[in-house]
Amino acid sequence: MAKIIGGLGTSHIPAIGGAIHKGLQQDPYWKPFFDGFPPIHEWLKAQKPDVMVIFYNDHGLNFFLDKMPTFAVGAAPQYVNSDEGWGIPSLEPLKGEVDLSWQIINHLVDKEFDVTTCQELLVDHACSLPLKLFYPEGNYPVTVVPVCINTVQFPLPKAHRVYAFGRAVGEAVAAWDSSKKVAFIASGGLSHQLEGTRAGFINKDFDLNFMESLLTNPEWATQFSIHELVEKTGTQGIELLAWLAMRAALAAGEGAGVRKVHSNYHIPISNTATGLLALEKF
Ligand code: DHB
Ligand code: FE
What we know:
The chain has helices at residues 14-22, 31-34, 38-47, 98-110, 125-134, 159-174, 204-216, 226-233, 241-250, and strands spanning 3-10, 51-56, 71-74, 78-79, 94-95, 116-118, 143-149, 181-187, 258-269, 272-281. A hairpin with a 2-residue loop joins β9 and β10. By secondary structure, it is of the alpha/beta class. It has 9 helices and 10 strands.
Protein backbone atom coordinates (compact mmCIF):
# COMPACT_ATOMS: atom_id res chain seq x y z
CA MET A 1 0.00 0.00 0.00
CA ALA A 2 1.07 3.59 -0.56
CA LYS A 3 2.69 5.42 2.35
CA ILE A 4 1.42 8.84 3.45
CA ILE A 5 4.43 10.78 4.70
CA GLY A 6 2.96 14.17 5.61
CA GLY A 7 1.41 17.41 4.49
CA LEU A 8 2.53 20.89 3.50
CA GLY A 9 0.46 24.06 3.64
CA THR A 10 1.44 27.26 1.87
CA SER A 11 -0.14 30.49 0.71
CA HIS A 12 -0.26 31.15 -3.02
CA ILE A 13 -0.05 34.63 -4.55
CA PRO A 14 0.79 35.36 -8.20
CA ALA A 15 3.33 38.02 -7.14
CA ILE A 16 5.45 35.28 -5.50
CA GLY A 17 6.02 33.89 -9.00
CA GLY A 18 7.06 37.34 -10.19
CA ALA A 19 9.54 37.60 -7.28
CA ILE A 20 11.01 34.17 -8.14
CA HIS A 21 11.33 35.22 -11.78
CA LYS A 22 13.16 38.43 -10.81
CA GLY A 23 15.35 36.68 -8.22
CA LEU A 24 14.08 38.83 -5.33
CA GLN A 25 14.33 36.14 -2.62
CA GLN A 26 16.85 38.20 -0.62
CA ASP A 27 15.04 41.52 -1.11
CA PRO A 28 13.93 42.89 2.32
CA TYR A 29 10.25 42.73 1.35
CA TRP A 30 10.44 39.08 0.23
CA LYS A 31 13.14 37.62 2.50
CA PRO A 32 10.89 36.86 5.53
CA PHE A 33 8.62 34.89 3.22
CA PHE A 34 11.26 32.93 1.28
CA ASP A 35 13.33 32.30 4.44
CA GLY A 36 10.55 29.97 5.56
CA PHE A 37 11.30 27.43 2.87
CA PRO A 38 14.82 25.93 3.36
CA PRO A 39 13.71 23.63 6.23
CA ILE A 40 10.95 22.35 3.93
CA HIS A 41 13.51 21.73 1.18
CA GLU A 42 15.62 19.71 3.64
CA TRP A 43 12.60 17.70 4.77
CA LEU A 44 11.61 16.92 1.18
CA LYS A 45 15.18 15.85 0.34
CA ALA A 46 15.10 13.45 3.29
CA GLN A 47 11.56 12.15 2.76
CA LYS A 48 11.59 11.96 -1.05
CA PRO A 49 7.85 11.80 -1.78
CA ASP A 50 6.93 10.36 -5.18
CA VAL A 51 3.48 11.90 -5.50
CA MET A 52 1.79 15.05 -4.19
CA VAL A 53 -1.97 15.39 -3.89
CA ILE A 54 -2.68 19.12 -4.09
CA PHE A 55 -5.76 20.63 -2.42
CA TYR A 56 -6.29 24.04 -3.99
CA ASN A 57 -8.87 26.36 -5.51
CA ASP A 58 -9.16 27.43 -9.12
CA HIS A 59 -9.42 31.22 -9.61
CA GLY A 60 -11.66 31.38 -12.69
CA LEU A 61 -9.12 29.83 -15.06
CA ASN A 62 -10.36 26.29 -15.59
CA PHE A 63 -13.78 26.81 -13.98
CA PHE A 64 -15.46 30.16 -14.39
CA LEU A 65 -18.53 31.44 -12.55
CA ASP A 66 -20.88 29.79 -15.06
CA LYS A 67 -19.62 26.27 -14.27
CA MET A 68 -18.35 25.73 -10.76
CA PRO A 69 -17.91 22.25 -9.32
CA THR A 70 -17.80 22.08 -5.54
CA PHE A 71 -15.14 19.36 -5.65
CA ALA A 72 -13.16 18.39 -8.76
CA VAL A 73 -10.30 15.91 -9.21
CA GLY A 74 -7.75 15.95 -12.02
CA ALA A 75 -7.19 12.70 -13.91
CA ALA A 76 -4.85 13.87 -16.65
CA PRO A 77 -1.32 12.79 -17.61
CA GLN A 78 -0.17 16.38 -17.28
CA TYR A 79 -1.44 19.76 -16.09
CA VAL A 80 -0.41 22.87 -17.97
CA ASN A 81 -0.07 26.14 -16.06
CA SER A 82 -2.03 28.91 -17.74
CA ASP A 83 -2.11 31.66 -15.15
CA GLU A 84 -3.54 35.12 -15.55
CA GLY A 85 -0.16 36.68 -16.27
CA TRP A 86 0.66 38.56 -13.06
CA GLY A 87 3.14 35.99 -11.85
CA ILE A 88 5.97 33.87 -13.18
CA PRO A 89 5.99 34.01 -17.01
CA SER A 90 6.36 30.26 -17.54
CA LEU A 91 6.07 27.24 -15.30
CA GLU A 92 6.75 23.68 -16.34
CA PRO A 93 3.69 21.42 -16.67
CA LEU A 94 2.99 19.16 -13.70
CA LYS A 95 3.14 15.42 -14.40
CA GLY A 96 -0.05 13.57 -13.45
CA GLU A 97 -0.40 10.34 -11.46
CA VAL A 98 -3.41 9.02 -13.33
CA ASP A 99 -3.71 5.71 -11.49
CA LEU A 100 -3.97 7.52 -8.15
CA SER A 101 -6.43 10.03 -9.63
CA TRP A 102 -8.86 7.24 -10.45
CA GLN A 103 -8.24 5.53 -7.14
CA ILE A 104 -9.25 8.81 -5.41
CA ILE A 105 -12.22 9.46 -7.72
CA ASN A 106 -13.61 5.93 -7.33
CA HIS A 107 -13.22 6.03 -3.56
CA LEU A 108 -14.82 9.48 -3.28
CA VAL A 109 -17.86 8.51 -5.34
CA ASP A 110 -18.17 5.31 -3.32
CA LYS A 111 -18.21 7.48 -0.18
CA GLU A 112 -20.93 9.67 -1.77
CA PHE A 113 -18.75 12.64 -2.71
CA ASP A 114 -19.95 13.07 -6.30
CA VAL A 115 -16.93 14.84 -7.75
CA THR A 116 -16.31 16.33 -11.18
CA THR A 117 -13.63 14.31 -12.97
CA CYS A 118 -11.24 16.30 -15.15
CA GLN A 119 -9.27 14.42 -17.80
CA GLU A 120 -8.10 17.81 -19.02
CA LEU A 121 -7.38 20.52 -16.47
CA LEU A 122 -5.57 23.84 -16.76
CA VAL A 123 -4.00 24.96 -13.50
CA ASP A 124 -3.20 28.41 -12.13
CA HIS A 125 -0.84 29.78 -9.47
CA ALA A 126 -2.69 27.93 -6.72
CA CYS A 127 -1.69 24.56 -8.11
CA SER A 128 1.64 25.44 -9.74
CA LEU A 129 3.37 27.83 -7.33
CA PRO A 130 3.62 25.50 -4.31
CA LEU A 131 5.73 23.06 -6.33
CA LYS A 132 8.01 25.88 -7.47
CA LEU A 133 8.41 26.97 -3.84
CA PHE A 134 9.06 23.43 -2.62
CA TYR A 135 11.42 22.50 -5.49
CA PRO A 136 12.99 25.82 -6.51
CA GLU A 137 15.59 24.16 -8.72
CA GLY A 138 12.77 22.88 -11.01
CA ASN A 139 12.58 19.43 -12.61
CA TYR A 140 10.02 18.38 -10.02
CA PRO A 141 10.75 14.85 -8.76
CA VAL A 142 7.04 14.23 -8.08
CA THR A 143 3.85 13.50 -9.95
CA VAL A 144 0.63 15.17 -8.82
CA VAL A 145 -3.11 14.80 -8.39
CA PRO A 146 -4.89 18.19 -8.29
CA VAL A 147 -7.95 18.25 -6.02
CA CYS A 148 -9.93 21.45 -6.44
CA ILE A 149 -12.30 22.83 -3.80
CA ASN A 150 -14.62 25.71 -4.65
CA THR A 151 -13.71 28.67 -2.44
CA VAL A 152 -14.66 31.23 -5.06
CA GLN A 153 -18.42 31.29 -5.71
CA PHE A 154 -21.17 30.72 -3.18
CA PRO A 155 -22.45 28.33 -2.06
CA LEU A 156 -19.16 26.97 -0.70
CA PRO A 157 -18.85 23.56 0.96
CA LYS A 158 -19.05 23.68 4.76
CA ALA A 159 -15.79 23.31 6.69
CA HIS A 160 -17.19 20.15 8.23
CA ARG A 161 -17.88 18.72 4.77
CA VAL A 162 -14.41 19.69 3.55
CA TYR A 163 -12.88 17.88 6.52
CA ALA A 164 -14.84 14.71 5.67
CA PHE A 165 -13.84 15.12 2.02
CA GLY A 166 -10.15 15.44 2.88
CA ARG A 167 -10.39 12.42 5.13
CA ALA A 168 -11.90 10.39 2.25
CA VAL A 169 -9.10 11.49 -0.07
CA GLY A 170 -6.61 10.33 2.58
CA GLU A 171 -8.37 6.95 2.84
CA ALA A 172 -8.18 6.54 -0.92
CA VAL A 173 -4.44 7.24 -0.90
CA ALA A 174 -3.83 4.92 2.06
CA ALA A 175 -5.64 2.12 0.20
CA TRP A 176 -3.79 2.72 -3.10
CA ASP A 177 -2.05 -0.44 -4.25
CA SER A 178 1.37 1.12 -4.79
CA SER A 179 4.74 1.29 -3.07
CA LYS A 180 4.93 5.05 -3.66
CA LYS A 181 5.29 7.72 -0.97
CA VAL A 182 2.61 10.40 -1.01
CA ALA A 183 2.47 13.88 0.53
CA PHE A 184 -0.48 16.27 0.59
CA ILE A 185 -0.26 19.95 -0.24
CA ALA A 186 -2.70 22.64 0.87
CA SER A 187 -2.53 25.79 -1.21
CA GLY A 188 -4.24 29.03 -0.20
CA GLY A 189 -4.98 31.41 2.65
CA LEU A 190 -4.31 32.46 5.18
CA SER A 191 -6.43 35.52 6.00
CA HIS A 192 -6.90 37.91 3.11
CA GLN A 193 -9.52 39.89 1.28
CA LEU A 194 -8.76 41.38 -2.10
CA GLU A 195 -11.88 43.45 -2.79
CA GLY A 196 -14.64 45.57 -1.27
CA THR A 197 -14.60 47.78 1.80
CA ARG A 198 -12.59 45.21 3.77
CA ALA A 199 -9.84 44.90 1.12
CA GLY A 200 -6.56 44.31 2.91
CA PHE A 201 -8.27 42.64 5.89
CA ILE A 202 -5.93 40.32 7.82
CA ASN A 203 -6.59 38.45 11.09
CA LYS A 204 -3.31 37.31 12.63
CA ASP A 205 -4.87 35.93 15.84
CA PHE A 206 -7.24 33.69 13.94
CA ASP A 207 -4.54 32.52 11.52
CA LEU A 208 -2.16 31.51 14.32
CA ASN A 209 -4.95 29.75 16.21
CA PHE A 210 -5.91 27.92 13.04
CA MET A 211 -2.34 26.79 12.33
CA GLU A 212 -1.97 25.61 15.92
CA SER A 213 -5.30 23.78 15.78
CA LEU A 214 -4.06 21.62 12.93
CA LEU A 215 -1.62 20.11 15.42
CA THR A 216 -3.64 20.09 18.61
CA ASN A 217 -7.31 19.92 17.61
CA PRO A 218 -7.58 19.35 13.85
CA GLU A 219 -11.37 19.69 13.60
CA TRP A 220 -11.42 23.02 15.51
CA ALA A 221 -12.25 25.11 12.42
CA THR A 222 -15.23 22.90 11.54
CA GLN A 223 -17.22 24.54 14.36
CA PHE A 224 -17.53 27.68 12.20
CA SER A 225 -20.02 28.26 9.38
CA ILE A 226 -18.70 29.45 6.03
CA HIS A 227 -20.03 32.97 6.73
CA GLU A 228 -18.26 33.01 10.10
CA LEU A 229 -15.03 31.89 8.43
CA VAL A 230 -15.33 34.58 5.75
CA GLU A 231 -15.97 37.15 8.49
CA LYS A 232 -12.91 35.94 10.43
CA THR A 233 -10.51 35.43 7.52
CA GLY A 234 -11.75 37.50 4.55
CA THR A 235 -13.41 36.59 1.28
CA GLN A 236 -10.24 34.88 0.05
CA GLY A 237 -9.06 33.78 3.48
CA ILE A 238 -11.68 31.08 3.11
CA GLU A 239 -9.04 29.33 0.96
CA LEU A 240 -7.92 27.90 4.30
CA LEU A 241 -10.44 25.13 3.55
CA ALA A 242 -7.61 23.51 1.57
CA TRP A 243 -5.52 23.33 4.77
CA LEU A 244 -8.38 21.65 6.55
CA ALA A 245 -8.67 19.04 3.79
CA MET A 246 -4.91 18.42 3.91
CA ARG A 247 -4.97 17.91 7.67
CA ALA A 248 -7.96 15.59 7.43
CA ALA A 249 -6.20 13.52 4.77
CA LEU A 250 -3.35 12.91 7.23
CA ALA A 251 -5.81 11.33 9.66
CA ALA A 252 -6.23 8.37 7.28
CA GLY A 253 -4.01 5.30 7.02
CA GLU A 254 -1.47 3.90 9.44
CA GLY A 255 -0.40 6.00 12.43
CA ALA A 256 -2.64 8.44 14.24
CA GLY A 257 -0.27 11.32 14.89
CA VAL A 258 1.33 14.25 13.14
CA ARG A 259 4.30 16.26 14.29
CA LYS A 260 5.31 19.72 13.18
CA VAL A 261 8.42 19.81 11.03
CA HIS A 262 8.39 23.56 10.47
CA SER A 263 6.16 26.61 10.25
CA ASN A 264 6.42 30.22 9.20
CA TYR A 265 3.96 33.14 9.24
CA HIS A 266 4.58 36.51 7.64
CA ILE A 267 2.40 39.58 7.02
CA PRO A 268 1.87 40.77 4.37
CA ILE A 269 2.82 39.58 0.94
CA SER A 270 0.63 41.57 -1.41
CA ASN A 271 -2.67 41.67 0.51
CA THR A 272 -2.23 38.29 2.16
CA ALA A 273 -1.10 36.87 5.48
CA THR A 274 1.24 34.09 4.38
CA GLY A 275 1.40 30.82 6.26
CA LEU A 276 3.69 27.86 5.80
CA LEU A 277 3.41 24.55 7.64
CA ALA A 278 4.97 21.11 7.26
CA LEU A 279 3.46 18.20 9.15
CA GLU A 280 4.98 14.73 9.27
CA LYS A 281 2.83 11.70 9.89
CA PHE A 282 3.86 9.06 12.40
C1 DHB B 1 -3.51 37.36 -3.91
C2 DHB B 1 -3.88 36.30 -3.08
C3 DHB B 1 -4.48 35.17 -3.63
O1 DHB B 1 -4.90 34.11 -2.89
C4 DHB B 1 -4.68 35.07 -4.97
O2 DHB B 1 -5.21 33.92 -5.46
C5 DHB B 1 -4.33 36.12 -5.82
C6 DHB B 1 -3.74 37.27 -5.29
C7 DHB B 1 -2.86 38.59 -3.36
O3 DHB B 1 -2.76 38.74 -2.15
O4 DHB B 1 -2.38 39.40 -4.18
FE1 FE C 1 -6.00 32.60 -4.07
